[in-house]
Design brief:
2 copies of one chain form a homodimer.
Chain A (H helix, E strand, L loop, with lengths): L6 H8 L3 H8 L7 H14 L5 H8 L4 E6 L2 H7 L2 H16 L2 E6 L3 H11 L7 E5 L17 E4 L10 E4 L1 H14 L5 E5 L5 H16 L9 E3 L4 H11 L6 E4 L2 H13 L9 E3 L20 E3 L2 H17 L7 E4 L2 E3 L9
Parallel strand pairs in A: 1-2, 1-3, 3-4, 4-5, 5-11, 6-7, 6-8, 8-9
Antiparallel strand pairs in A: 10-12
Helix pairs in contact in A: 1-2, 1-3, 6-12, 8-9, 10-11
The first copy, chain A, binds a DNA duplex (16 and 16 nucleotides) through helix 2 and helix 4.
DNA sequence: ATGAAAGCGCTAACAT
DNA sequence: ATGTTAGCGCTTTCAT
């Protein structure tokens, strides 16, 4: 049903020039209503769709927004953080008439190789980068001549625009909650410290202890790197120092913690209270055969994704504006593992 | 560092014509090695990247492959099926030098609206459609003049090319396994019957009973629609008919089943054995506080994603070829809920 | 309000 | 082996 339709042909059929058809399609003012209708009819009848490549070349806009996710293995497999983020980004793209180009990388090699391609002219209007850590080759994307927005406050190029949730305050809230429940020896298992999320959650922990005049003990701070296995090990190292609560910097690590506690026969929350981070554990509702549910800090992941798109579109429109720094609030979700109900 | 570089300028700097530079970039034969090197050097020095829009317009190829996912709410939120699929598709895109354009829809309205846009000329080289059901407006995508490949055997346009796992045999294997363990009154909770996955898994169940001379009882067949809540209800309806095993057409439904059984005080697998489908439940390894693990049929989800890309690329190369029908094997994963270890 | 015409930067057929 | 040239289909001045 399509014999290579072009603007020119639509124009011929409607008895106007190609330029007029273009104006109609792009909603320009100064078109006689009558002409406008006639053109619209022809377009509808013929099922004409403008050629996107030609539009992009002429207008220097593609309507493609990139979402770059480094290192998929860990997170994408493990929990629903990135799926939710993708969902938010996708939705905002749909609503704004843009298209999402998704880049997931497996190795730093692959990152190196594809980074430049991503930034080539006439391809993406802008790029969102999620989950970047210090030293990642993808940091170099900031240096290209193209709008970029980070999800998660960037460490390597602090002047870059970003959307994030308030990691410090989230952690502060979690630990304060444990303190208010009477816990005195609160440990933490930190995330990757080459990411602001890891650093800031650790800082929130420290701040909460300090604000409540509790001592800071290095032995109660263990590195988990956002990995479940490492969190398991870290828990075992922590236990000799008799914590009565553990603040864990992610839910997937919290599962490792719960496993470790179960393995050594400690009860949650009676012996050790646990609070996680993300609200992504499969322990959020009463899954059968699960005997506790995880108290955690919820981040508005999906909203972060949507806001990232909206902010990036602003940057595209006004590239010379100041860096955008958007920090969203988090929420304490009280379930059983903190012992509040107990 | 980029003052609007073009092929022409690179050519000037290297002392050759624009066409020669183009040939170098596209690895054409018949270029003197010396010239080739000189051009490559200039490109490296200047950091030149060809303009993608211009290439697309001239070559009628964009290197963009679409992945269309209807109705995100259910699956994308619930389990890791689509994340895994996306991962596979993404990886194959990376390896083949293509880019993944992801479309996730919330409502049928949205589908209607964006469907035509997806198919517009000069945009995508081809489209992969996952999780389609009978009656979905996205079925119309098949009618456009563009390569399309389904993930999941299509119901509405059976002549379309697709990649799928062997649903019938998978279900057959699951039910045969239960029979071999001595179960006599095996019930099933079916998926959506407007999708081949739902139909074929149901058929596999029926075939297995028949092959083993077990009677087929309508009261032992309940509709779950791939939804956890419906599976919960369906289980309660099934129980008066005293099944000693339930084959559930998806893992996320199986969680609803387990919950229902727990709620009425039945033990798994002692009173009722359960086998799921997908190998995506959070019951695959010993999560702490979970007292059983789910026997299930594993699909090679990631491979399906990769194979989808590879097959689509073939179709793009040879659009007139016969429909591709690729069916991958599944695997029975024995854990505790079927009672094999018990 | 509309048309004519000049590109956008590249590929590919044709010429040499 | 390399250069010349004609598009690819659209947007966007510049006229009128």
């Amino acid at each position: 049903m399509d014999g290579k339709l072009t603007l020119e042909k639509i124009g011929a059929l409607a008895g106007v020039s190609r330029a007029t058809v273009s104006r109609v399609i792009n909603n320009h003012p100064n078109i006689r209503e009558e002409v406008r209708q006639r053109v619209l009819e022809v377009i509808a009848e013929t099922g004409y769709q403008p050629n996107q490549a030609a539009r992009s070349l002429a207008s220097n806009r593609t309507g493609l927004l990139g979402l770059v996710i480094p290192r998929d293995i860990q997170e994408l497999f493990t929990d629903l953080y990135y799926p939710r983020l993708i969902q938010g980004v996708s939705q905002a793209c749909n609503e704004s008439g843009n298209t999402l180009a998704l880049f997931i990388f497996h190795t730093e090699e692959e990152e190196q190789q594809i980074a430049a391609q991503i930034m080539r002219q006439g391809f993406l209007d802008g790029v969102i980068i999620a989950g970047l850590h210090f030293g990642d080759p993808l940091n170099q994307l900031v240096l290209f001549h193209k709008p970029v927005l980070m999800i998660g406050e960037p460490l390597e190029y602090p002047q870059a625009s970003f959307v994030d949730a308030d990691n410090r305050l989230g952690a502060y809230t979690a630990v304060s909650h444990l303190i208010s429940l009477g816990r005195q020896r609160i440990a933490t298992i930190t995330g990757r410290l080459d990411m602001t999320a890891g650093q800031q959650r650790r800082q929130g922990y420290l701040d909460a202890l300090q604000a409540n005049n509790l001592p800071i003990e290095d032995q109660l701070i263990a590195a988990g790197e956002f990995e479940q296995g490492k969190a398991y090990q870290a828990t075992l190292q922590l236990l000799p120092h008799t914590p009565d609560a553990i603040f864990v910097a992610s839910d997937s690590m919290a599962l490792g913690v719960l496993r470790a506690l179960a393995d050594v026969g400690l009860r949650v929350p009676e012996d050790v209270a646990v609070v996680g981070y993300d609200d992504l554990a499969p322990l959020d509702t009463a899954v059968p055969f699960i005997s506790t549910t995880l108290t955690t800090i919820r981040q508005p992941i999906r909203r972060m994704g949507m806001l990232a798109v909206e902010t990036l579109l602003e940057i595209i429109k006004e590239p010379q504006g100041p860096p955008r720094r958007i920090i969203l609030p988090t929420e304490l979700i009280i379930r059983q593992s903190c012992g509040a109900a107990y």
